[in-house]
Every structure is written in structure tokens, then in C-alpha cells.
């Protein structure tokens, strides 16, 4: 798969690469954060149509996420903490789906001000796009005026390209609280859907109480909400794969080692959306020695090779170590994973991928280190069962 990075200038204009315009191109565009089942349906349709018409299959990937850029008025911080996945993860998923070309566009407010008519003219004239594939509620261009109806009319009027709309809604819609914040479950075990057995009246009452808004079930927004409430299995079902974060292993306080549970501690620079505080079952994948600030293609290659990398079931903790934080005075949020392995694992300085399979329990303060060790033994057995 070929990856081309495009950086708009201060006016939002792009210097497009030279392409073979004699070959048709089937293209889709978006941020594809999480590469969930809806995204996979759209990408799959691009590959299908490209094969059918002997055309090139392409994706225009916006980075950073448009929602992130607009939310910060263009003055976005360096790290998008709400991004479900890094760009490298999305690129590998696209390659595995059969995409030939990805254009990674550095999204900016100036670029966003281009009208959808101008933008589509660029795609057809500069890249040779002849089929545009979009999800059912996609919209692009200034003011998001280029919805599927407007684009369909433009395609019919010009005859230059075709629009193919994919039903990427899946099971339909769910409702999530308008201004929700991550909420750690208070009970042990995977949290249930609070509306699973509710009747219509109860659903309406819940929606009114929480000022809930409708979102697509297959959406990045819904996945973030589920992860922010510890509902890992529901989130993984929408993603079609285990949610994961990536980071470098650093030296911690070695508290876990002192009670018989040495952990791999991730540094502050974690890529991927961190679920709410708690203890989880999942896996740890060793991607090898850290390559520092590697370029995008190098990072993507490491993700691609993860399928063959060493991996172990792991009990994963996200939180502030409440049993020890009062004594140490350290309350920062940390991610640490205890690998279920008989061997001693030397992972310091390595990049690891932590995958989440289920929620085990909330973070609580235990009366003693021994009480914590006893609970961790139970968590290990639960992890074994979930990851078997």
C-alpha cells in the first residue's frame, strides 16, 4: 500500500501528486477513528468496486480528526486524547482490507473552508476519482453542506463521477448522555447496558434525565462512551476487534514486584483512547525496542508485524494506585499490565500494545498490600478465563 502525506498551505490549498488519470479511482474519505464495523463496511465497498471496475482503491484519511480540530478552534493541543486509535493502526487496517493508496491529509480550518463542490472538483481533476464511496450520513466541505443528497445531485449534473452510498448504520441508533464524562463502575464484573431490559417509558425517562442524544450504534462516539463506562465487550463488538492502546514501557515504583505481581508500566505518551479507571483482562503484545519518534510508515510497519509478535494474557490496571498513592503522594493516572507468564519478561524500553477484552473490577483502596495481592490472584484467574 502506498502512503502519501498531503499538507494544505495557509489557504487550505493542496499540492496534489501526479497520478495516472487514465486509471479510474474509487475513493472514500474521513478520519476512520477506531476502524469500527461501519468504517469497515465503507472500506470494503471501495475495495469491491475497485476490483469490479479494474480501478485503483484509495482512502483520503484526515489527521487530526476534524472534530478535534474544530473543537479547539484550530489551536488544538499536540495530543488528541479522545482518538480511539493512532493513524498507524488505521493505515494497517486499510492495507489488510486491500486498499492500494492512502492520502493522509493534515486537516486544518483553512482546508475545511473549501466548498464541497471545489473539493470534489479537485478529487476528480487532480486524482482521477470516478467513484466516491460514503457512509449514509457523511457530509463534507464548508459548513458540512456536502451531504449525500447534495453530492448525488452534483454527480448526476456533472456526469464526471458516481456516488455510492453505503448503509453503515448497522443496528441503528442508541442514545448517550449529552455531556457524559468517564464513570468508573462501582461493581465487580463487566457492566451491563442500563437500558437492556427497559421498556419505552423507561427509555424516555432515562433519556430525559440524562439529556441523551441519538448516535449511531456503529460510531466512534458510541465506542468512546462505552469505553468510558467500562463496557469493553460492547465496545469490542462494535470495533470488530479488541480495543488497544500503545506505549513504551518505563520504570515505575515497582510496587507490583514487591507483592509478587511485577507489571509493565506504560509511559505518559500513550496512543489510543484510555478506558475509564479500573482493572481489565486482556493481552500485552511486545512490539520490540522503542524506535522513538519514528515516521508514520515505520510505525505502521510495527503495527503490521504485531500479528507475529510475542503476546501474553494480561491483567491490566488503569488508575492512580489508591492502595499506595497516599503513602507516595503520587496520584497520576498510570497504565500497567501484569503478564500471565512463567518466564521473566524484560520489557523496559520496549513498545507494547495493550489490548482490552473485559472489565474485571473498579479501582479500590485495600486495607493492606496482602489484601491487594489476594485480589490480584483472583483477577489473574478471571483473566485466564476471559482470554482462554
Automatic annotation (TrEMBL):
Record keywords: ATP-binding, FAD, Flavoprotein, FMN, Kinase, Nucleotide-binding, Nucleotidyltransferase, Transferase
InterPro entries reported for this sequence: FAD_synthase (IPR015864), Riboflavin_kinase (IPR023468), Riboflavin_kinase_bac/euk (IPR015865), Riboflavin_kinase_dom_sf (IPR023465), Rossmann-like_a/b/a_fold (IPR014729)
GO biological process, one term: FMN biosynthetic process
Pfam families attached to this UniProt entry: FAD_syn (PF06574), Flavokinase (PF01687)
Metabolic or biological pathway: Cofactor biosynthesis; FAD biosynthesis; FAD from FMN: step 1/1
Catalytic activity, as annotated: riboflavin + ATP = FMN + ADP + H(+); FMN + ATP + H(+) = FAD + diphosphate
Domain Riboflavin kinase: 238-388
The protein's Enzyme Commission number: 2.7.1.26, 2.7.7.2
GO molecular function annotations of the record: ATP binding; FMN adenylyltransferase activity; riboflavin kinase activity
Domain of life: Bacteria
Gene3D superfamilies: HUPs, Riboflavin kinase-like
Family that this chain belongs to: Belongs to the RibF family.
Protein name: Riboflavin kinase
Organism: Bifidobacterium merycicum
